[in-house]
Automatic annotation (TrEMBL):
It comes from Streptomyces alboniger. Residues 183-301 form the ABC3 transporter permease C-terminal domain. Residues 56-160 form the FtsX extracellular domain. Keywords: Cell cycle, Cell division, Cell membrane, Membrane, Transmembrane, Transmembrane helix. Pfam families: FtsX, FtsX_ECD. The chain crosses the membrane at residues 21-41, 179-200, 232-255, 275-299. Forms a membrane-associated complex with FtsE. NCBIfam families: FtsX_actino. It is found in: Cell membrane. Its main location: membrane. This is Cell division protein FtsX.
């Protein structure tokens, strides 16, 4: 097969269907940009989970005198030293527990004043109203229920609280946004495939005379189909390259510069350039192969060879 002939046919086909080729490029670029963005969003959520779940604790709040008067869970009175020792001993025996830290009522009061000193309630609180607690760091944050089952309802325990629960709502929202982006990506992908099929069909129809002559002189099916497949592949590759550019520019302006989220939101560990660069070859490969395969199967129907 002469490469010069194939290349010339590709150029002719792209020029003849310039408007539809442009539509294919744009739709492929948008769909693949959403696809790459969804992959990066998934990586970002995983990174945030690993960062935050490693920092959250399970807290066992102990009954104090105020709770004994007001909370039915503490009806048997404030926690005793024996109960505290028993709770601490049981915690240290649990294989899921990595570290246990005791926070006294005075320490809890000090931390509250540091964080909520401007609150109107802070002036009415006293140290004896604050609860003692055990802050437990788990080896696996997903094993919270093991601790909750072991200590909820025990004498001297007012509540077992998992800080991870506060983060689950945030991660649920982020995952929902990711699924929405995937749904839009799938819709754009269908539109792109339909445009590719129509473009190939129009191109094959406009060159039916040339393909007829090629059949008469004994050209193989692959030889006839190759220019059409390459046209779709080139358009898809251009779209994939544009999608890669969108991902790189988006990461640059949203995180490093422009919005500069990395500087403004220090609490989030954003994904690095390595995660972005790792997705670019996949985006380019899909941009090249998807239109080529769509064109190949479309030609089997519309190009009788």
């Amino acid at each position: 097969m002469r490469a010069q002939f194939v290349l010339s046919e590709i150029g002719v086909g792209l020029r003849r269907n310039l408007t539809m080729t442009f539509a294919v490029v744009v739709s492929v670029a948008l769909s693949l940009a959403l696809f790459g963005g969804s992959l990066l969003m998934r990586d970002q959520v995983s990174t945030m989970k690993g960062y935050w779940y490693d920092k959250v604790n399970v807290s066992i709040f102990l009954c104090n005198k105020a709770d004994a008067e007001q909370d039915p869970k503490c009806a048997k009175g404030a926690v005793t030293n024996e109960q505290k020792d028993q709770i601490l001993g049981d915690l240290k025996k649990m294989p899921v527990v990595d570290k246990v830290t005791h926070e006294s009522a005075d320490e809890a009061y000090k931390h509250y004043k540091e964080q909520f000193g401007d609150s109107p309630l802070s002036s009415s609180l006293t140290p004896d109203q604050m609860q003692e607690s055990y802050r437990i760091k788990l080896k696996d944050p997903e094993k919270y229920q093991v601790v909750a089952t072991a200590f909820s309802g025990r004498d001297g325990v007012q509540a077992v609280q998992d800080q991870k629960g506060y983060l689950d709502n945030l991660f649920g929202l982020l995952n929902g946004m990711n699924w929405a982006a995937l749904a839009v990506m799938a819709l754009m992908l269908v539109v792109a495939l339909m445009l590719i099929v129509n473009t190939v069909r129009v191109s094959a129809f406009s060159r039916r005379r040339e393909t007829g002559i090629m059949r008469l002189v004994g050209a193989s099916s692959f030889y006839i189909q190759m220019p059409f497949i390459m046209e779709a592949a080139v358009a898809g590759l251009i779209g994939g390259a544009l999608a890669c550019g969108m991902l790189v520019v988006g990461r640059y302006f949203m995180i490093d510069h422009g919005l500069a989220l990395a500087e403004k939101i220090n609490l989030i560990n954003f994904i690095g350039w390595d995660a972005v660069l790792a997705k670019l070859p996949l985006v380019l490969a899909i941009g090249l192969l998807m239109p080529a395969l769509a064109a190949f199967f479309a030609l089997r129907k519309y190009l009788k060879v």
